[in-house]
From TrEMBL:
InterPro entries: ADH-like_C (IPR013149), ER (IPR020843), GroES-like_sf (IPR011032), NAD(P)-bd_dom_sf (IPR036291), Zinc_ADH-like (IPR052711)
Gene Ontology molecular function terms on file: oxidoreductase activity
Top-level taxon in the UniProt lineage: Eukaryota
SUPFAM superfamilies, per database record: GroES-like, NAD(P)-binding Rossmann-fold domains
Protein name as catalogued: Putative Zinc-type alcohol dehydrogenase-like protein
Pfam families referenced in this protein's UniProt entry, alphabetically: ADH_zinc_N
Matches recorded under PANTHER family: DEHYDROGENASE, PUTATIVE (AFU_ORTHOLOGUE AFUA_2G13270)-RELATED, PTHR45033
Domain Enoyl reductase (ER): 13-281
Length: 285
């Protein structure tokens, strides 16, 4: 038996300038080992990580490891010493491996969410609203700010506007003119903006750095006891808790566009990458 995988093909080019083409491969179907499951993929999500890999913006990109990380599937075969209860179950796929548990993240009341078009940002917005938090957003598109308001955000500002942080602070209640945390995936000058917006001891949660792989840290942030907390995915326990929370709150993920036809429809898949390149769409692809 064989299966299809989607990888990137190596071509010459410098990081940030190269754009590796997609390659469809046919390989022998791997057999599950002890304690493992064989899963038929039913749907897979395209992440900015995959887009960055095609531009060599991640170190040491693999040209043999399949693209796409998150998804859903059906358990179709079991390895030795694996519980029969798994067979036929629908499962969620997460790229975290060997990470069993870790401390919980911050629980805050007033939050700023940077960017409202990526899947992570929209999921954060949905989770925060479901927790009863007051969320304001920044975006490069006024249309996307309105969409975020429709999803429960209190309001937002366009980060392309000069002095947007002053405008954002002006949206807060007079008796409560500061934020508890900022959740951001861009980086750039977020620290210099944060010291004007966060309470003393406030938290910046950084899940990505799409503007630049480096950020400045200022003495003003030190004097305000600002905490910068990096985050990537999470432990398996956190993933279980998240799935239970989504089920409890009946949260539906935001999906911008779906293409069908499997991996053979490589032209349409390439079109999803173009959506990301142009900054179009909302949520997962």
């Amino acid at each position: 038996m064989t299966t299809k995988t989607l990888t990137i093909q190596k071509v010459d080019g410098k990081p940030g300038q190269v754009y590796y083409p997609l390659k469809l491969n046919t390989i022998p179907t791997p057999q599950p080992q002890p304690g493992e499951l064989q899963i038929r993929i039913l749907s897979a999500a395209l992440n900015h990580r995959d887009f960055f890999l095609r531009q060599h913006l991640y170190p040491s990109p693999s040209f043999t490891t399949p693209l796409l990380a998150d998804g859903t599937g059906l358990v179709v075969a079991l390895g030795p010493n694996t519980s029969q209860s798994w067979l036929g179950k629908r499962v969620l796929l997460t790229p975290g491996r060997g990470w069993d548990a870790s401390p919980s993240g911050p629980e805050e009341r007033y939050a700023i969410l940077g960017g409202t078009s990526g899947g992570v940002a929209l999921a954060v917005l949905q989770f925060a609203v479901a927790l009863g938090m007051n969320v304001w957003v920044s975006s490069g598109s006024k249309e996307k700010i309105e969409k975020a308001r429709g999803m429960g955000a209190k309001g937002g500002v366009c980060y392309k506007d000069e002095g947007w942080e002053k405008e954002l602070k002006g949206l807060l209640p007079k008796e409560r003119g500061w934020f508890d945390c900022i959740v951001d995936g861009a980086g750039g000058n977020v620290v210099s903006k944060a010291v004007k917006l966060l309470k003393p001891g406030g938290v910046i949660v950084q899940y990505g750095m799409t503007v630049s792989p480096k950020m400045d840290w200022s003495m003003a942030a030190v004097l305000n006891n600002i905490e910068l907390r990096g985050t990537t995915m999470g432990s398996r326990q956190e993933f279980r808790d998240m799935v239970a929370f989504v089920r409890e709150k009946q949260i539906t993920p935001v999906v911008s566009r779906v293409v069908k036809g499997g991996l053979e429809n490589i032209e349409a898949i390439d079109g999803l990458f173009e959506d990301i390149r142009k900054g179009g769409g909302d949520g997962g692809e």
